[in-house]
Design brief:
disordered C terminus; about 575 residues; 6-stranded antiparallel β-sheet; alpha+beta; Virus Head Decoration Protein, Chain: A; 19 strands
């Protein structure tokens, strides 16, 4: 019994078996065998000033070999290999605590793990040094899942997150590797991925056919990224994104960007024509010699292939080193294989398994590329090719009369005379869509010709008007002189204060004669003075202006020639002396 107040080391039994250099056999300090416990340790927990008490303390001083605690059985079947119990106390502590990287050590390596659960040497559940949890062996050989029967899941990016709502996944952002958003619909018909479907009774769906007027709904999705709803006999119908679609060459070759709609084959699409429901847009050309397109295999190929390969579990698997062999074993290659180092075996095994899996998947995809498109005969005896490509989901309605569109294109490609003839012939087909269209085109053409003709005439008249104004202005400037009235040399005659009718007639005749004589003289003077200037101006004007002026002058001359001469006014007695005098 130790009752001292100092830190003594007290051992009831100490066995040392560390002397010697033997490393081949088993070196054990104490070995116990019992029907209940092989070794039992109990602590009162009182001596806890320096060390934390424990019923058993185990330590290893090795570096890259050995364990502090090891449990093993070669006979156990249904019992637990390791059990931790807590009795009737109110326990608020931690059932299993692991604290690494203390006392100046580190636990930050990329291969550092808190947990590594393995099945036959293959890790199926790991927790890294920073909490990254990996579930599954990373292959398609075994299914792994995470099930939360009652609770929530929360993911954030600010270091704080609380899953407070049961049955809800809360996150700042979502990203899935697969494309497409779909919704589940129930169907009594066994459908295939990529088939075009239509609404059926209630909220169910069925394979789409032309024999019914039921609304075409969309395409059955192939492993969509997000699926809304669930049902035991449900099918995911694509709502948005990329999705494979079954299609045929019934309406000709299909190119990237073509709209797709239901063909005469149930559940199969084709290039869109005429009026109908459009289900999407082709994202790639359809090679009618292959059933699966390149885009399909790249995007969705891994979802349908089933590669067969055997995982590598040991560092001595011949597949780790190509073209090598092991002495004493089955020959495999020409060079001897070098066994992997123990410290790097796990990482290299993982890498080797990834390579083997990738090679197997590529072989399976290559086999899909070799599958030919399917040939199906239509009701009219025509054979079409059927395959699958990737399309973009875009549900819409198409309202186009292809025959009318072709007719319009043909009319627009004709020359003017041929177009007019064809329009007149087509317009005679009263009551038909083409006849109505031809009539409309002719009416629009006539209105257009009128509008353009009026504009041209207005422009021409404005130009002529401006030219005439310019010419008149020039002539007035060149011929403008101040008029001087002629001097009368005859003595003034006193008028009779009481003129008789004869006197009045004589005076009127004299005045008219004088006016006529003066107008004639003025015209002669104007002509004599303006002719040189006018000729000089005409010589300076442009050619087209000269032609206009000459034409107008000729017209004036013709008018003057055609106008009959006015009769000479009768000369009253007494007026003759006046003319002679002037």
């Amino acid at each position: 019994r130790d009752a001292a107040a100092i830190a003594n080391t007290v051992r009831g039994l100490e066995v040392l078996t560390t002397e010697g250099t033997n490393r081949a056999g088993e070196n054990t300090a104490i070995s116990g065998t019992g029907h209940t416990f092989g070794v039992r340790g109990v602590t009162t927990g009182e001596a806890a000033d320096i060390y934390a008490p424990a019923g058993g303390y185990f330590e290893t001083q090795g570096t890259d070999t050995g364990n502090a605690i090891r449990g093993y059985s070669d006979t156990i079947t249904t019992a637990n290999l390791l059990s931790l119990f807590q009795g009737a106390s109110d326990f608020t502590g931690t059932g299993l605590s692991m604290n690494f990287g203390t006392a100046g050590g580190s636990f930050t390596g990329t291969s550092s793990k808190y947990l590594d659960f393995q099945n036959d040497g293959v890790s199926v559940f790991t927790v890294s040094a920073f909490g990254t949890t990996t579930i599954g062996d990373g292959t398609t050989n075994h299914f792994a899942g995470l099930q939360i029967g009652f609770g929530g899941l929360c993911v954030a990016n600010d270091g704080s997150c609380v899953a407070s709502t049961t049955g809800r996944i809360s996150a700042v952002d979502y990203q899935v590797s697969r494309a497409g958003l779909s919704e589940t619909y129930v169907s009594d018909t066994e459908l295939e991925a990529g088939e075009v479907v239509m609404l059926s009774a209630g909220l169910t769906i069925d394979r789409a056919t032309r024999a019914t007027t039921t609304t075409v709904l969309g395409v059955v999705a192939t492993n969509p990224g997000i699926t809304l709803g669930t049902a035991a006999t449900g099918y995911p119908v694509a709502l948005a994104g990329r999705v494979p679609v079954q299609l045929s060459t019934e309406n000709g070759p299909i190119s990237k960007g073509d709209q797709l709609m239901l063909s005469s084959l149930p559940g199969v699409a084709m290039k869109a024509t005429g009026t109908g429901a459009v289900i999407g847009i082709a994202l790639e050309d359809f090679n009618d010699t292959r059933y699966y397109s390149d885009g399909y295999l790249t995007e969705f190929g891994n979802d349908i292939v089933e590669p067969v390969y055997e995982p590598i579990f040991t560092e001595y698997d011949p597949r780790l080193n190509d073209n090598c062999y092991y002495s004493g074993g089955a020959a495999h290659g020409d060079e001897p294989c070098v066994p992997l180092m123990a410290t790097t075996t796990e990482a290299q095994l993982d890498e080797a398994n990834e390579l083997v899996q990738a090679e197997s998947e590529e072989e399976a995809l290559e086999a899909l590329r070799e599958i030919d498109s399917e040939t199906i005969e239509l009701e009219n005896g025509e054979g079409v090719q059927v395959g699958q490509i990737v399309m973009f989901v875009q549900r819409s309605e198409r309202w186009i009369d292809e025959s009318m569109l072709s007719a319009i294109v043909g009319l627009m490609d004709s020359d003017v005379s041929e177009l007019q003839d064809r329009l007149e012939l087509t317009a005679e087909e009263e009551g038909t869509p083409l006849g109505v269209m031809a009539t409309v085109i002719m009416s629009i053409s006539e209105l257009w010709n009128r509008v353009t003709g009026i504009e041209e005439r207005l422009d021409r008249l404005e130009a002529e008007n401006a030219a005439l104004k310019h010419r008149v202005s020039e002539i007035e400037g060149q011929a403008g002189v101040e008029y001087e009235a002629p001097v009368d040399t005859q003595p003034a005659v006193e008028p009779d204060p009481t003129p008789t009718d004869e006197t009045v007639d004589t005076a009127t005749s004299t005045e008219n004669a004088t006016t006529t004589t003066m107008s004639t003289q003025e015209a002669e003077d104007d002509t004599a003075s303006s002719t040189p200037a006018a000729e000089e101006m005409v010589a300076e004007e442009p050619t087209d202006m000269v032609e206009t002026d000459v034409t107008e002058e000729a017209s004036e001359v013709e008018v003057e020639e055609e106008t009959p001469a006015e009769p000479e006014p009768e000369t009253a007695p007494g007026s003759q002396s006046t003319e002679v005098t002037e």
